[in-house]
Amino acid sequence: MAGLALKRCYEGLQSARPAVSVRDAVVLVRLAHEIEHDAALAERDAARRQMEEWRQEFKSGLWAVRSVLVGQYGQDARAAFSAEVKKLRAAAPR
Predict the structure, then answer these.
(1) Long-range Cβ pairs for the range 21-29 (8 Å, 24+)
(2) pLDDT digits (tens, 9 = 90+) for 15-67
(3) Dist CA 80 CA 27 (whole Å)
(4) Is 5 exposed, middle or buried (0-12, 13-18, 19+ CB in 10 A)?
């Protein structure tokens, strides 16, 4: 339907006598909305993937820091670090 409306609009512009009905205009507006909506969904999904990548990198970084703490300062330092991270994580905005 949208293809037909677009074709009518284009033919009307070529013949210098626009023959676009209100129905055709509504179909074109809906088509534009669908295209924008699909683009917004793609952007949202890309942002979610990026956030998940960052979350995984953050977890990897925490693991590395904990390993270094245990190696240099012992298990007690790791426990203190983990407690501090949990406290900060709870206060972080979501």
Answers:
(1) 27/1, 27/2, 28/2
(2) 777 666 777 777 778 888 888 888 899 899 999 999 999 888 888 888 888 78
(3) 62
(4) buried
